Amino acid sequence: MKDLSYYPGCSLHGTAREYDDSIRAVSQLLNIQLHELEDWTCCGASSAHCTEEELAIDLAARNLAIAEKTHRPLLVPCVACYSRFKAAETALREHPEEVRFPYRGNVPIRYALDFFSDEPVLEEIKKRQVKPLSGLKIACYYGCLTVRPPKITGVREYENPQHMDRMMKLLGAEPLPWSYKTDCCGASLVMTRTDIVKKLTQRLLSMAKDAEADCIVTGCPMCHANLDTRQGELKKEAKEDDDLPVLYFTELIGLALGHKDVKKWLGRHITDPIKVLSKKGLM
Amino acid sequence: MKPSEQIVQSRHSFLSEIVEASGETLQACYQCQKCSAGCPVAYAMDLLPNQVLRHIEYDHREKVLGSKTIWICASCYSCSVRCPNNIDIAKIMDTLRTRAIRSGITPGEKEIPLFHAVFLDTIKSKGRIHELSLILQLKSKTRDFLKDAGLGWKMFRKGKIKLFPSRFWSGKKVQDIFEDFEKRERT
């Protein structure tokens, strides 16, 4: 049994509920105990770092201080929160005089995709797998903050990352080579310059389709929202014709482990993934 | 002597202000344009990222702080990782946005800074982001009530929209963080 503190972040209590549900469910199956961080508050993403740098560090540091008290590593499923925590960790290491919380920089901060790609966790998944995801062709979409900036994420293959690809291969699926793994989806611009986000997501979707993907897989709630929810409009504007479902990597682990709630998670997506998975004989 | 010290001539220049605040030696830029070539949103900018750096060096404060570019930048860090001179351009964009808000110069993009202000207000008042409150707040300012209404309804039916914010007791602690910060800013 492995114990981790868990910081769900605001999105996972709202639009990314299925990510929250699936990560908790999958962890339980793998004997990983998640303890939701008591009394957590917003990390400040997407806005604090853009406009008030010091405030951004404080908002993140408050949560890091709570996590440090638990003496457990901190698991963060949202990559925007993860990036803010790591940025605060780095800034406070360089300027310890600016620490305004009882925080000494001793919390290992782990992004969920990185954690689930660790060898021991992969071995555990393999051991308990009941359904290989054979025949499922996947465009692994890492997005920006999963890999960049590498001085914060520590990812070495930041132009062509492989860890999600390795995980999908282990699940029995076929990760495809494609050139848009780490291209930006526009993130929070969706609320104000929706036109930009539509242009970027349309390009991502069409490139994944060119690679002949059955679905896109991600570990970022913002990438998921942007890619999953805008397909209807793109179709109406005749910029895209077919649907391309977008899944969280935890949902696919859940499917491979035979979790009973997979259908419930997938039922919350705007672009239906169940059709494709049924066609492949996986549901 | 560090290059940053060598090149900054006037201590009161816009250039020295940005170099000092960001910690980035942007004078090392030799205009190779790699940042702009890889920027996914360059097409929507009025100044390309490499042009922003050059305008800073020329002390064109109003042009830079009033540009669309600093708000359009999505902080994807493609420019920062590819810069051959290791200039963290995305970080400079953060510094510029912070300065732009305080400058009184009319921003080149109207809604994006408004979104960030509403976002921070929501954190301050609620401690966490409740997405529906954020959207309604933003709409009350932009007056564009119909935008994404259909999509919102679809998401509601899928159980993706949480109607009420979570109840927890730390809201006040977050207000304290904001108030401390505002106090430090004033002094």
Helix residue percentage of chain B: 55-70%
Biggest chain-to-chain interface with counts: A-B, 52 and 59 residues
Oligomeric grouping of the chains: heterodimer
Terminal residue distance of chain A: 29 Å
What is the H-and-E element order of chain B? HHHHHHHHHHHH
Main structural class of chain A: alpha/beta
**Cα gyration radius of chain B (Å):** 20 Å
What percent of the residues of chain A sit in helical stretches (DSSP H or I)? 40-55%
Shape of chain B: globular
Beta fraction of chain B: under 5%
| Chain-averaged pLDDT of chain A | 95
Task: Give an account of the 3D structure.
The complex is a heterodimer of chains A (283) and B (187). In chain A, 46% of the residues lie in helices and 10% in strands. Chain A has 14 helices and 8 strands. In chain A, the strands form 2 sheets. A 4-stranded parallel sheet of chain A has the order 2-1-3-4. A 4-stranded parallel sheet of chain A has the order 6-5-7-8, with helices on both faces. In chain A, strand 1, helix 1 and strand 2 form a beta-alpha-beta unit. The model of chain A has no long low-confidence stretch (mean pLDDT 95). Helices cover 59% and strands 0% of the residues of chain B. Chain B has helices at 3-7, 14-22, 34-38, 49-57, 61-65, 69-72, 78-82, 89-103, 111-126, 131-142, 149-157, 171-186. Chain B is globular and about 50 Å long. Chain B starts with a helix and ends with a helix. The model of chain B has no long low-confidence stretch (mean pLDDT 90). At the A-B interface, helix 2, helix 3 and helix 9 of A face helix 7, helix 8, helix 9, helix 10 and helix 11 of B.
